[in-house]
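Researcher: I'd like a candidate sequence for this fold, 422 residues long. If you have to choose between options at a position, lean toward the conservative one.
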């Protein structure tokens, strides 16, 4: 679930070269009248996105879901899947999908709701809520956890997690257990001095949410986000159970995994088909508050609309969420990370977004600053994103081209140069 390169939409994230963590507010421009899509008719736009989705499947993705809403009532819905996957299921735009690290946006929303209620403060040290659980916890604030400036080591990089990630160990992980794995390692830097994406931050957030409210993250997502917004297919997974029709997720099996992937990370548990392993029913509890939420493209669009329009957070807390730190060394005005969400200025407009990766599932959910325009690109495998140097460049290029075209379609603008016409 490490942050990957979102170069196609300008959200470039490097996790090994953190930048100085200087907070800066990002202005939210006033909404402007939507321009007429200059890339052709609606049918041509849909055809272009479908062609790009097919190209990604041809390059090796088992399945692709695309949903784009231009904020004017026009919604593009596309599914493409490899022929061999149709024996397992028919992929649908409304299928439930593991959203991976998009979960962090919901966790940050829950924290900020409690801040607005006076039950938490972003300046609270971790030690206040989790005494003795985090070394140097007095120097790490809640804000540092939310914007990845704590310096904590990423627990998902510890080989202790591999059996669970691979689906061989089906134990149920708690936030405190995941946090304990992460803090066994030395910190990467002094708190608040740099930026580095770490899932351990959100394991700590999950534990704090439980401590403050006496309730689980699953209950909080259900009662504070999903039910109020009518998100019928959005929930925090605590085991392998799905609530509705869902996309099947696949990873290359050990015999078909590229040689550049570490040997211990190859052997997924699950049914085998066409050189892949179906990992859909593996237990994702190890991801927890860092990545266990399940949702759909439609539900996520409604969530973004409610979030960015102020329906979920008071204005002061939404402004805090959109106060960012730079993620790229030497680029203080480049891509930024707020509280549980990325932002960047793309060739077609400013986006707020997050990407998620968990075995079998890769997702990018994006919105404009108002929440009216949204785009989701959901791919039913994670491997080529998790190990980009091991897979042919063709699949990464196809992935980036589709994402860039979907983001531009969201803004009623033509796809970047190089994307095929419909």
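Model: Candidate sequence:
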């Amino acid at each position: 679930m490490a942050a990957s390169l979102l170069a196609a939409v300008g959200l470039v994230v490097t996790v090994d070269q953190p930048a100085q963590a200087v907070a800066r507010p990002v202005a939210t421009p006033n909404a402007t009248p939507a321009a007429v899509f200059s890339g052709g008719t609606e049918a041509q736009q849909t055809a272009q996105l479908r062609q790009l989705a097919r190209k990604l499947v041809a390059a090796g993705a088992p399945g692709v879901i695309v949903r784009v809403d231009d904020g004017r009532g026009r919604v593009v819905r596309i599914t493409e899947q490899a022929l061999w996957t149709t024996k397992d299921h028919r992929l649908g735009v409304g299928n439930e999908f593991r959203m991976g690290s998009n979960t962090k946006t919901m966790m940050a929303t829950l924290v900020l709701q409690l801040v607005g209620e006076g039950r938490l403060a972003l300046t609270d040290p971790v030690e206040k809520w989790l005494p003795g659980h985090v070394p140097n916890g007095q120097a790490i604030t809640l804000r540092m956890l939310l914007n990845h400036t704590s310096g904590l080591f990423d627990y998902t990089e510890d080989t202790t997690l591999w059996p669970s990630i691979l689906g061989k160990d089906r134990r149920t992980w708690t936030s405190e257990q995941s946090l304990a794995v992460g803090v066994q390692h030395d910190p990467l830097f002094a708190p608040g001095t740099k930026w580095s994406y770490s899932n351990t931050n959100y394991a700590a957030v999950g534990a704090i949410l439980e401590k403050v409210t006496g309730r689980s993250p699953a209950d909080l997502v259900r009662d504070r986000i999903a039910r109020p917004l009518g998100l019928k297919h959005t929930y925090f997974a605590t085991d392998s159970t799905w609530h509705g029709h869902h996309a099947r997720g696949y990873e290359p099996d050990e015999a078909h995994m590229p040689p550049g992937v570490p040997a211990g990370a190859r052997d997924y548990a699950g049914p085998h088909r066409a050189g892949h392993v179906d990992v859909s029913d593996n237990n994702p509890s190890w991801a927890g508050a860092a990545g266990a939420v399940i949702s759909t493209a439609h539900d996520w669009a409604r969530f973004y609309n409610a979030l960015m329009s102020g329906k979920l957070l008071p204005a002061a807390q939404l402004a805090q969420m959109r106060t960012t730190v730079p993620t790229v060394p030497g680029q203080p005005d480049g891509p930024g990370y707020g509280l549980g969400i990325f932002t960047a200025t793309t060739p077609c407009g400013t986006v707020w977004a997050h990407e998620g990766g968990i075995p079998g599932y890769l997702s990018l959910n994006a919105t404009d600053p108002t929440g009216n325009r949204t785009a989701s690109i959901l791919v039913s495998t994670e491997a080529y994103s998790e190990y980009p140097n091991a897979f042919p460049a063709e699949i990464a290029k196809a992935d980036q081209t589709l994402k860039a075209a979907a983001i531009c379609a969201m803004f009623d603008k033509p796809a970047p140069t190089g994307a095929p016409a419909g």
